[in-house]
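User: Can you help me understand a structure? I only have the sequence.
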Amino acid sequence: MTVEEIRSRPRPAPDPQPVPASPTEAGDHAQRNAGTELDLDWVGDVRVNTSAVERRAATMGKRRSVKKAWQAAWQLRAITCIDLTTLAGDDTPGRVRRLCAKARQPVRQEILDGLGVGDLQLRVASICVYDAMIETAVEALAGSAVPVCAVSAGFPAGLSPFEQRLEEIHRSVARGAQEIDIVVTRAHVLRGDWQALYDEIRAFRQACGEAHLKTILATGELGTLRNVARASRVAMMAGADFIKTSTGKEKVNATLPVSLIMVRAIREYEQRTGWRVGFKPAGGISTAKQAVEWLSLMKEELGDAWLRRELFRFGASSLLADLERQLEHHLTGHYSASFRHPIG
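Assistant: Let's start by predicting it. Here is the structure, written out as tokens:
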């Protein structure tokens, strides 16, 4: 994948929302995961060889090394998969507007022109905010193709009353969120109450309507890789359009071993049902080198279809700054000071 190859590809259409009747109807971009009935036998069949998973994950940074123009192309692709996020207690409308401006123009135009990709109309995948900031983000992004994503359902702990969490989803959709990141009740996983987990996510899926549902498993709080694999299967059967590692608020967030477990669950689900589910690692991914490692994981485990925003996202607040810095280095041969990339 080179810069020239990226430039030669046709421009993607804006992400459509309708749910097709089958996995093949209307093409990949229109896919929504319809979900299936809960299959407890499939959940119970999960087996994880932890040492093998850790060995495989440890090779990711060594198995695939990209340099020069190819490295710049991978970094550009990573930018298009970022859910640019601000989820701080001191968020203000001004901060959200500045972040939305960065979403519209994630890399300085002179860098893109110097790389020969100034006409790509590069953008991030979405802006991710709290419910209170949705309307500000929608207004700031008006006329762009960047959707607004809202964290919901009692984010980040998921311990508020169930009806309140459902109402929060309805409110976020009504305010203009096109994607909803929900958190699950971790206790359902830790107790092995898979029916309760399925019913909860299914209800959240219905509350989302046409908004895409990204299900946060909070993998750092699930105890074992086997629990991660089981929760991933249940979430997909319940209709999650994406499964996501973390809220970014846990002590342990996205890791390559956990990601490997989740993407293999996605592969198995597609083989069983024909439905493609997206993947979103979040928390702790802040460098261009890490971004390439995760893109390599997606390419090797799931294929090129998962190298696009329709099926892969980074949940990140600082990753964009390093990607822009690395692209500038590719162009000039020099690393700039971090203050030259203050937003993202």
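Now, to help you interpret it: Confidence is low (pLDDT under 50) at residues 6-30. The chain has one domain: 31-333. Let me know which part you'd like to focus on.
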